[in-house]
Amino acid sequence: MNTDTSGHSVRLPKTHGRYLFDTRLARYSWLRVGGSADILFLPADASDLANVLAELPREFPVTTIGVGSNILVRDGGVRGMVVRLGRAFANIKIEDKQCIRVGAATLDGVLARTALEANIAGLEFLDGIPGTVGGALRMNAGAHGEDIAGVLIEAVALDRNGKRHVFSKKDMNFSYRHCGIDEDVIFLEALLQGRASSYEKIEARLETLRKKRAASQPIRAFTGGSTFKNPSESHSSESRSKGGKKAWQLIEAAGCREMRRGDAMFSPQHCNFLVNAGNASASDIESLGEEVREHVKEKTGVTLEWEIVRIGEKEVAT
User: Fold this and answer.
1) Residue 267 annotated to the active site
2) Is 36 labeled as catalytic in the residue annotation?
3) Of 226, 239, 267, 283, which one is the catalytic site residue?
4) pLDDT given at position 241
5) CA dihedral 53, 57, 60, 63 (to 10 degrees)
6) pLDDT of 82-120, one tens digit each?
7) Is 226 among the catalytic positions?
8) CA 71 – CA 311 distance, rounded (Å)
9) pTM assigned to the model
10) Up-side HSE of residue 4: CA atoms within 13 Å toward CB?
11) How far is CA 23 from the centre of its chain?
């Protein structure tokens, strides 16, 4: 019998994967902050994951993470079970000359480079998105005016009871940096639509996008990527009525470029990127983000929405 720090007790199902207990999640987060997971589950494969989900009591908390590129793990850690998909979920298969079936744990950049080798165009934008295909599905990740909604044919997933589902693009109910599938659904793979092109043309576009990203983003820093969603692309009436500026423009207009709290700071290279410049805590980072949101609201009237996903408890469990 295992008990998490909030008092949930459960007999863990048998697994061909691994359970790790009281495991610090900072090592799994690109921001390098955060407390521990009561249980970190590394499933062996999709069947193993389905079996564990089916046998776990429905009320036992389950949280899924990818490579941690777009999450902020709070200092108090995460109760219940955290699921992290590994290599068994990172397979890539060329289905025909224009389609790719890809596992949810596949890095977006690896997918883009595989498409290049297969002479499949239309997925280059993914090369500059840190994270995995599963995360891209969950948040409708995008860059350079393109997003996963524009290339998805179908997504395969497990629900909280371990039941397999196949979702069409319509089922996903995509909007800006959001999909309408329940949060407790775990994506396993996606079928993506590209188009036939030449290696040289695809490589040239990849190189252009890489140079643009390197020049405008702190790619070597400990960061979670874009901190706030662009209100200019939001569906909210408030955002549309405020002139359609991007998040970084609003942050700069509010005088918040390079603001910091301890080792938490907004990047001077791109002021919508929160950075851990050394030994910041999750509290430092989140508090700084909230402070900037307040300044932007006061200065511009726009309420910025977090794009970084915050998980776990703020207070350290005792």
Assistant:
1) no
2) no
3) 226
4) 40
5) 10
6) 999 999 999 999 998 899 999 999 999 999 999 999 999
7) yes
8) 7
9) 0.90
10) 24
11) 20
